[in-house]
Design goal:
This protein is α+β, with helices and mostly antiparallel strands. Among the domains are: 149 residues, 2-Layer Sandwich (Gyrase A, domain 2), CATH 3.30.1360.120; 83 residues, Aminomethyltransferase beta-barrel domains (Elongation Factor Tu (Ef-tu), domain 3). Helix content is 19%, strand content 31%. The strands form five sheets. Strands 12-13-14-11-3-15 form a six-stranded mixed β-sheet. Strands 16-19-18-17-20-21 form a six-stranded antiparallel β-barrel. Strands 5-8-9-4-10 form a five-stranded antiparallel β-sheet. The radius of gyration is 21 Å and the shape is globular. It starts with 19 loop residues before the first helix and ends with a helix.
């Protein structure tokens, strides 16, 4: 039976995605609220969805990743204020993973940015108030001619090793020419879409941004129908695979209290840009010069397999003293061990460090290890 939405407090402040009616046909097993929208989290067990992602093709409604659109004559200048990554190196038709950072260097969001034209940018947002942040920032730059809004687009993710076969069936062989982190326009079921070679899975995949959001059911069902021969499965987010791949979740693994250097994401900071190019650059230089006091690490956690993703952040202790926290942790059936991310003091953020973690299923020993846990060179999603 479809998930009983009466179990979730509802109201007009929370919205349904354009694919809501279509997803209900596949009996979702649970929902959460993400960017003020209802978000189906799974249709099968997490392990079964993980297997489908690794071996077949999956369809995932991610239209909850609302797109902050920056446009207007000064769109480039304003978009650059939001991120310390050099946007002049992002061509029209290209996408980049970026950080939106505040004046103290804190991470407000970590979206995928797509450059739609010279002065128009989409930021596909994690669940936060980045739209309000951008609108507030505009008040500090009243002379900039810029429009800030939520774009009326709805992304889906088509992910897994059979995703290329499915996209060829839908769009023809030319879709194989689309490079990793680039986009193109197309039509599915006669509806206009933007296709990107991106995803939140560490697997081969595409994202389909529907630009006529009245056609959600048509597009979802067209993809499912075309995918039948490839055994397509509707799924939610695969936390197993994203943790294996070292993908962070804003709000869980990082917030505005964390900065790119603590996260090991210095590569997303263009140190050669002038301070006034981006809101955060001056603060980030100061953080770089004085050094960080904490870092996020990959950890393996001993003991029996965790039955699910952690529901709270777990204390990390050493000799009875609390020194950090585990933010995301789950059992990987492929690796046959519990893996996760842990914040630790910088001087304890070294490979082989042993700590104790107070989990929801008892106290466990943990060890700092390399991350990503799988495919450290990120060869799979590029392939």
């Amino acid at each position: 039976m479809p998930f009983d939405m009466s179990q979730v407090q509802r109201g007009a402040r929370n919205r349904r995605t354009p694919y809501y009616e279509a997803t209900q046909r596949y009996e979702p097993k649970g929902f959460t609220v993400y960017n003020h929208m209802y978000f189906p989290i799974r249709f099968d067990t997490f392990e079964a969805e993980f297997d489908a992602l690794l071996n077949g093709v999956t369809l995932w409604d991610v239209s909850v990743e609302r797109c902050l659109e920056i446009s207007g004559p000064d769109g480039f200048r304003f978009a650059q204020l939001l991120t310390p990554r050099d946007l002049s190196k992002c061509a029209v038709g290209q996408a980049k993973y970026v950080l939106i950072c505040d004046g103290d260097g804190g991470i407000v969001n970590d979206p995928v940015l797509t450059r739609m034209d010279e002065n128009t940018f989409w930021f596909a947002l994690a669940s936060s108030d980045a739209l309000l942040f951008a609108r507030g920032l505009k008040n500090a730059y009243p002379d900039l001619n810029v429009t800030i809004k939520e774009a009326d687009v709805a992304p889906l993710q088509v992910q897994g090793p059979r995703s290329k076969d499915l996209m060829v069936k839908l769009l023809g062989e030319e879709i194989l020419e689309l490079k990793y982190y680039w986009w193109t326009e197309a039509k599915i079921a006669g509806a206009p879409v933007v296709i990107t070679r991106t995803g939140w899975t560490s697997e081969v995949g595409y994202e389909v941004y529907l630009t006529d959001t009245t056609r959600g059911t048509d597009v979802f069902e067209a993809i499912m129908s075309a995918g039948e021969e490839f055994d397509i499965k509707p799924t939610g987010p695969s936390d197993i695979r994203r943790i294996e791949g070292g993908i962070f979740n804003w709000g869980a693994d990082m917030t505005y209290e964390n900065n790119p250097l603590e996260m090991g994401l210095e590569r997303l900071v263009a140190w050669d840009l002038p301070d006034d190019a981006s809101l955060s650059l001056r603060a980030l230089r100061q953080i770089r010069d004085r050094g960080v006091t904490r870092r996020i690490n990959g950890v393996e956690i001993d003991g029996d397999p965790f039955p699910e993703l952690n529901n709270v952040k777990w204390p990390v202790t050493d000799g009875g003293e609390r020194i950090g926290k585990v933010t995301s942790a789950i059992y990987s059936p492929r690796l046959e061990r519990n893996i996760g991310f842990a914040w630790l003091p910088a001087d304890r953020s070294t490979l082989g460090t042993s700590v104790t973690v107070d989990t929801e299923w008892g106290t466990r020993a943990a060890t700092v290890v390399e991350m990503p846990f799988v495919d450290p060179d990120k060869r799979i999603p590029v392939s």
